[in-house]
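Hey Z.,

So I finally got round to the zinc ion thing we talked about over coffee. Here's the setup:
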Amino acid sequence: MSASRPEIKASAKLPAIVAILRRRDSGEFGNANCPHCGADGRYVYTFLCEDGLVRGAMQGCLKLFPRAKNAHHAARLVAEAFKREQEARENNRPLAAWWKAMVAAAQAFQAAVETEGFSRDRLNAFYIEVLDWERKRQAWLSKKGYTRKRW
Ligand SMILES: [Zn+2]
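And the result:
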């Protein structure tokens, strides 16, 4: 999207990922198809790109998409939140409030982009919300005496 960013390799032509929204497991027999290239596989990732569009790809193709560098920390947190949410659902366990809030923030952001369009302000507000929940999580962890997880 950004005209100022130099295109240095073929993969740089793909839009940068700003957040992983979902990971779908189609089972060990690989019954899913990659939305990007059509190959058979097991895990399909749904992710939000910097142009505000939601795309899908298998793990292998996911690596072809560049990552939004300025959003690295928040994007990884959102990815972790979706992973935790899936694990909680599969194991019938409750999900911590901050992970729940990050998932909800990503879904709200995605819905807002779909209905009202993408904007940097909207994206930044989403990240600020995610980082705010991360601060709450870290505060809780240090209060409980857990080691900080580095991102
Ligand atoms: Zn693919």
